[in-house]
């Protein structure tokens, strides 16, 4: 078992998970997943201030989940799918990690007498 | 050992130095299952019986489909209230194969919605992220 008392360093995956932890932000991602959407149109879909929506967009951008493009005065956003990759990798590790714990637990509870 | 994701199937394997008879109850006994996954479990290891695992931030719920000690157990798996992976929407099959005095465990999770960005992928991946964090 790994015993670590040092706080782990935040990773890009943490930023993505934090960004995904909010239902409004997930809704924004749904809006922009297939097509570029202007900021104003995103804000129009929510019952909150434009400023609050801008903040959510900022968090998503910071996490690398949104691509921003300027078209004259407009800002257009689209989903940056690659940012979801580490989360998918995390998912892929769920069962292997669990089985590794199972192995440790079973073998610790049922020690074999050593035969070389 | 590594897992591979093929479309909507996750396969994970592990070699355990104990026979299947010893390993099997870790998938059916509430007190044993929480030694490696989850914090609290309600298990009724009979076909149609409840499979419930409280993992702190998130829970997994389904029902047992096949219970064939000590070689094979199949149960459904979902996250209550989550559209992306509703209760019982995916299936986990565990096959224990004797290898001398040891066991080869092959776990196959089918029906995981990972292959395309549907309405709910972000939600699903968030839940899984929480699941991973809660279980480790």
Describe this structure in words.
The complex is a heterodimer of chains A (116) and B (136). Chain A is elongated. Chain A has 116 residues and is an alpha+beta fold. The longest helix of chain A has 25 residues, at 85-109. Chain A is 54% helix and 12% strand. Chain A has a three-stranded antiparallel sheet. Chain A has one domain: Winged helix-like DNA-binding domain superfamily/Winged helix DNA-binding domain (Arc Repressor Mutant, subunit A, Orthogonal Bundle). In chain A, helix 1 runs antiparallel to helix 4 (50-62). With 136 residues, chain B is an alpha+beta fold. Chain B has one domain: START domain (Alpha-D-Glucose-1,6-Bisphosphate, Chain A, domain 4, 2-Layer Sandwich), CATH 3.30.530. In chain B, 17% of the residues lie in helices and 41% in strands. Chain B has three helices and eight strands, in the order ββααββββββα. Chain B is globular and about 45 Å long. The two termini of chain B are 16 Å apart.
Descriptors for this entry?
heterodimer, A: 116 residues, alpha+beta, Arc Repressor Mutant, subunit A, three-stranded antiparallel beta sheet, elongated, B: 136 residues, Alpha-D-Glucose-1,6-Bisphosphate, Chain A, domain 4, eight-stranded antiparallel beta sheet
Q: With helices defined by DSSP (H or I, 4 residues minimum), what is the helix count of chain A?
A: 5
Structural class of chain B: alpha+beta
Assembly classification: heterodimer
| Secondary structure: helix percent of chain A | 40-55%
How confident overall, as mean pLDDT of chain A? 84
* Domain tally of chain A: 1
Shape of chain A: elongated
State the separation between the terminal residues of chain B, measured CA to CA.
16 Å
């Amino acid at each position: 078992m790994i015993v670590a008392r040092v706080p782990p360093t935040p990773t890009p995956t943490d930023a993505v998970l934090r960004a995904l932890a909010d239902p409004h932000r997930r809704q924004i991602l749904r809006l922009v997943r297939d097509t570029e959407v202007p900021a104003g149109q995103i804000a129009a879909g929510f019952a909150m201030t434009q400023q609050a929506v801008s903040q959510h967009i900022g968090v998503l951008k910071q996490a690398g989940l949104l691509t921003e493009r300027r078209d004259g005065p407009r800002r257009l956003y689209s989903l940056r799918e690659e940012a979801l990759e580490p989360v998918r990798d995390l998912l892929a590790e769920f069962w292997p990690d669990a089985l590794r714990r199972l192995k440790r637990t079973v073998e610790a509870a049922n020690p074999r007498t050593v035969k070389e | 050992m590594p897992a591979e994701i093929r479309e909507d199937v996750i396969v994970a394997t592990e070699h355990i130095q104990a026979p299947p008879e010893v390993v099997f109850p870790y998938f059916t006994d509430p007190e044993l299952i929480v030694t490696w996954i989850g914090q609290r479990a309600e298990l009724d290891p009979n076909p149609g019986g409840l499979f419930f695992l409280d993992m702190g931030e998130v829970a997994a719920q389904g029902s047992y489909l096949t219970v064939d000690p000590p070689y094979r157990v199949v149960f459904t798996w979902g996250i209550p209230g989550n559209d992306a992976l509703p209760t019982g929407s995916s299936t986990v099959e565990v096959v224990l194969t004797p290898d001398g005095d040891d066991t080869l465990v092959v776990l196959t999770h089918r029906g995981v919605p990972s292959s395309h960005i549907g309405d709910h992928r972000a939600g699903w991946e968030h839940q899984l992220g929480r699941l991973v964090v809660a279980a480790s």
